[in-house]
Structure formats: structure tokens, C-alpha cells
Amino acid sequence: MRPIPKLLLLLSLLTGLQAPAFCSSKIIPLHTISSPDHLNRTFSQLQNSAIHTKFHRLFILDRSNHHIRLLSQHTLAPALVIGDKRLRFPQDLTITPDGFLLVADGKQGNILKWNLNPHFPAYTKTVHFDQTINAIASLSKDEYLILDKYRNKLTLIKNDRPIWKISGFGSGVSEFKQPTDIAVFNKTIYIADPGNHRVSAFNERLKPLFTINADPKHPFIKPSTITTDEKGFLYIADEARHTVYIFDGQHQFVRSINHLPNARQKNLYRPTGLSAQEGKLWINTPNGIYVFQLTHWHNE
Prior knowledge:
This protein is an all-beta fold. Helices cover 2% and strands 47% of the residues. The protein contains one helix and 25 strands. It has a five-stranded antiparallel sheet. The protein is globular, with a radius of gyration of 18 Å.
């Protein structure tokens, strides 16, 4: 295991992000993990990493280094490295309700599992599927979803066996154009479909429910990354618009984030990873991971 270089932690008291007049929410930037050149050995492909928060830790998937970094969720101090010798082409990760880490080793078609015990994650097994896996999300203790963007296919897995699937290239309600990400809340499944400039919602048996679009004046261009929090807020990162859109539990637009006042990088640039928990939002970009406090969350 290589030593972890010290991360540059910048504490910012930034208050310049104001919500629209109809919304009382505020977003307060808290701190940043920067990724200048001297940190490349730590996050050499930060712009393409997936992130997840659980057990007071931030899970960062580093595709170039073929492993997952664990940081303290509160201090952002480095903790552990997972998968150094097992992962070859990691694409995404999720955590099940009973505390198992599932990592999609995309080009290999493998799902690798670790038991996240309190001391050190223990590898348990690898499950192989005859397809590419670009995204993964946990639905329940025994069920998870995998996405193959090249075949435009969404598959529901139960006890490590496929039981339902939908596929097809197009703009129909059950069709996709190279979908990229999955998020789940209360059995509702959200699929980021940048080729169709939308996010589609399905029930737990993959029946279409509805689609989500941004402000008509600023429609989605490339909604590539999505996540939900424990209150049902939906966060959608549009990589082409360099913007994160926030929707409430009734799928009503709350506000957007695209500006970083008083920061070296003034505007959000290519957000490609999201995680939200307990009123905090982590946004992953090529320039670093930005952490925000969401006051609307506490007002719910």
C-alpha cells in the first residue's frame, strides 16, 4: 500500500450563494479537497470518480489507481484503501442497507463485495455477469441494480441473479440513450439518461413512472450523475452545464449550484460525482471535492 500524501484542506466561510426568491434554502460551502498536481498520486482521475457517504466515511472510487479511498466524512482525513489488488476497471460503487460495499468492475462484468465491519472492510466474494457494468445501486438488502450503457440495459439483481430487465435504444419511456447513473429512494429508481437529456423514474419492478426535466429555460444537456438523500431530495449533476440541480421529495425544483464565490475556481466545473447525507452535499469535480451544508434539508 502506498503512503497517502497529506490532503490540502481549505476551510472556507463562503456565504455568497443565495436561493431564488421563492425558496428559503441556502447553501453554505464548508471545505474542499483540492487536487493540484502534487496530489495526483492520491486522486489521479478525480474527475471520473464515484463517491458515497456511509458510516461517517467518504468512499471515493479512483478509476486510474484501481481502488477506493476512504476519508473521514467530517475531517476529510485519509483512512483506508480498498481493492488495490482486486479491481481492474472500477466504475461505480454502492452500499447495501446491511453494510456491504458493492463495487462494479465494469469492463470485467464483475461485482465485488466487501463487508464493511467497524475495523477493516473484509472482501467476501465476486459475482460475474456477462455484460459491461457502468453503474450500480442498492435497492434492498438482497437486491441491487446494474446498468450497461452500451446495451442501454437496466437489470434488477436479487440474491446475485438477474430477475427483471429493460433495454432498448431510443426515447420511449422504457428506452435509453447511453444511461450513466442510478439512484434509489423508497423503491423509486432514478436513471440519468444524458442521451435523452432527462432523468427517468421507475418502480421496483422497472415499470416507468415519470421523467424529470430541469427549468424549461435551461433544460438538461448532459445529466450524468444523480443521488438522493435520506429525506428524498434528488440531486442531478449536469456535466455540460457545470451545474447541480436540487429537487425536493415531490420532485419540485428547489435550486441549482453553479457558482463558488471567493474560491480559486469561481464556477463549478464538470461535476461528475455526488453524495448527500444528513444535510451535507459532496460534489466531485476535476478541481476537487466540494462540501456544502444545505439549510433547506434541516427545514423540512
